[in-house]
Write a structure and sequence with these properties.
globular, binds adenosine-5'-diphosphate, six-stranded mixed beta sheet, four-stranded antiparallel beta sheet, alpha/beta, single chain
Length: 229
């Protein structure tokens, strides 16, 4: 599903080697944490998968596609095949919860019937149906992230990429988000969570890929993570 083969990334403006000979395969339906200290290279992996940056050398395949070969025109369509959530939620502040999710469907040309069917389904799945008419700034952080998850998933992407999804949340909300991520994974979506929240990683017992200084120092199936930074 996602394959990094000997990937190197040097940011030329600063001559920083952000990734060095990084190789891993993530199969369809896996749940994987990518962890490491600040500066380890986690965001660089996210940016490469989203085709926001290009690797300096090595190969990256997502769903069998060599993404370095995508043209500028193809990249937006490719990105729609991925669900993405970020630490800062990135909801549309002028749209209510329902319309934030509906917007993702409209962008890809979904019919009104589809929108009427899918938005309530996802509101229910992330347990936020009672806040359908609320504006983002009327929600707690955990509720905002649930809306962001529904919006990321409503187009049924094969992969959900979550970049520090619980970075702004307290432990109770973090637990809720992890339950929803688990549920999304059990529905068949490949889930990749980039984080430095070791407590969350420890409690989930999923595969852990650990980066240090741009290199993979650990890739443990049924992970867990014992150390404190
Ligand atoms: P993490 O997400 O684990 O904190 P990053 O992938 O953001 O790590 O960064 C890895 C290294 O690449 C760091 O040394 C960082 O300073 C550098 N880096 C990240 N983005 C850029 C950029 N756009 N230009 C130059 N250097 C960058």
């Amino acid at each position: 599903m996602i394959c990094f083969d000997n990937v190197n990334k040097i940011y030329e403006n600063t001559d920083t080697e952000a990734l060095s000979n990084v190789s891993f395969h993530i199969d369809e339906g896996e749940f994987v944490f990518i962890i490491g200290q600040s500066g380890a290279g986690k965001s660089t992996i996210t940016k490469l998968v989203l085709a926001e940056e290009k690797q300096t050398s090595g190969d990256i395949y997502v769903g069998g596609v060599d993404i370095s070969q995508l043209t500028d025109k193809q990249i937006p369509y490719y990105r729609r095949s991925l669900g993405v959530v970020f630490q800062e939620f990135r909801l549309l502040s002028t749209k209510n919860v329902y319309n934030n999710i509906a917007f993702a469907l409209r962008v890809r040309g979904a019919s009104n019937e589809e929108i009427k069917e899918l938005v309530p389904q996802w509101l229910e799945l992330v347990r936020i149906s009672d806040k359908a008419n609320a504006m983002p700034d009327e929600l707690s952080g955990g509720e905002r992230q649930r809306v962001a998850l529904a919006r990321a998933m409503v187009n049924n992407p094969a992969v959900l990429l979550a970049d520090e999804p619980t970075g702004n949340l307290d432990p109770v909300m973090t637990e809720e988000i992890m339950q929803i991520l688990t549920q999304i994974n059990e529905m068949g979506t490949t889930v990749i969570v980039v984080t430095h929240d070791i407590h969350m990683v420890n409690s989930m017992k999923k595969r852990v890929i650990e980066l240090d200084n741009g290199q993979i120092v650990r890739d443990e199936h049924q992970g867990g993570y014992q150390y404190e930074y």
